[in-house]
């Protein structure tokens, strides 16, 4: 058995590995994206008071805690029969905008950009955020400032910069102070300037995107608000492999369409449509579904994006471009929300009197894709069943098949060069997987790529 290990595969969040099995001639027999840690939140949530779910579930992840926080709160809204008032809803929406700005700026500038600005064939020591700082220090500095803005917004509205706690059944626990609004507004304007400048860099990816790289044909799933990009409200839409509408759902209706399953090479769950079709979620899916972003500069960027990829595309690396367009749109939305003094209104929560329904489902669009929190409770509001479907599980099939597609193209003579290994990593990075959302590990979190030669049969 021949084994090649990359430890760690850089610039993803979490612990996973790629295993490539070779035939007797040294060619790829098969390859898989493997996650070998066990997830536990669905089990130890059972028995907790459901109103604690928005406080507990952000601990699933330090990168996208806001998405879990708000999905859990939306599920609680249903269980307690308490729809948030207009200002409370706006604050939740702005909190999601901050989540996207923080997460998307981190991924694009720090994780994906080195491959495009420095080069995917560059030495690993140079192909990193430190290499980016050396090559483009002004861009790197501004990217850090934008990410800081996303965190400050989470802190101001969510109570804490990492694990927000203010979303509660029926709305949010306190209004936004006027002084904070003005402070965040100034930061939002600077962040939008950075996003505008960054588009001139992001658009160069259009010329560097191999349309067949990590190829996989799937359906797509994502939320839209009457055809407009939305992370908080609207129906979840499903389109087929050709872009044609398949279905739309909200709440508990997801069980009529989605089924979860497992494979023996990974602890990370898979999701597919009932009937067997596979699908993907996230920025690529959302831009395949929406008609517009709803903000002028992002809509102009979307037009340019579609002039290259079309109205609908299966191109995996287009995830990077789609992610940037969402980032640009959220920077615009932040300025829009924070320019309105009414967002500091005091009517932020609908009072809660007791359990109204024994089941609640909260759905949002996390930066990485559709996120579903499903809780069943007893009459006193204690959780009896919990199901969480995260984006990385829904993209698991796409990553797995994309890895094999690239492996077949880059493995030569039974060996894997550093450059070739990075090309495999680029497929995984395009999805921006959040392994912590799907599984939980203790200690270091590397991703290993193993090359295994099959033993000859006797």
TrEMBL record:
Superkingdom, taxonomy of origin: Archaea
Binding site for Fe cation: 64, 437
Entry keyword Disulfide bond: no
Pfam families: NiFeSe_Hases
Residues reported in the UniProt entry to bind Ni(2+): 61, 64, 434
Keyword check for Magnesium: yes
Binding site for Mg(2+): 42, 388, 440
InterPro entries given in the database record: Ni-dep_hyd_lsu, Ni-dep_hyd_lsu_Ni_BS, NiFe-Hase_large
Cofactor(s) in the UniProt record: Ni(2+); Fe cation
Alphabetical list of Gene3D superfamilies matching this protein: Cytochrome-c3 Hydrogenase, chain B (1.10.645.10)
GO molecular function ontology, one term from the record: nickel cation binding
Keywords: Iron, Magnesium, Metal-binding, Nickel, Oxidoreductase
Recorded family membership: Belongs to the [NiFe]/[NiFeSe] hydrogenase large subunit family.
Protein name per its UniProtKB record: Nickel-dependent hydrogenase large subunit
Organism (species): Methanolacinia petrolearia (strain DSM 11571 / OCM 486 / SEBR 4847)
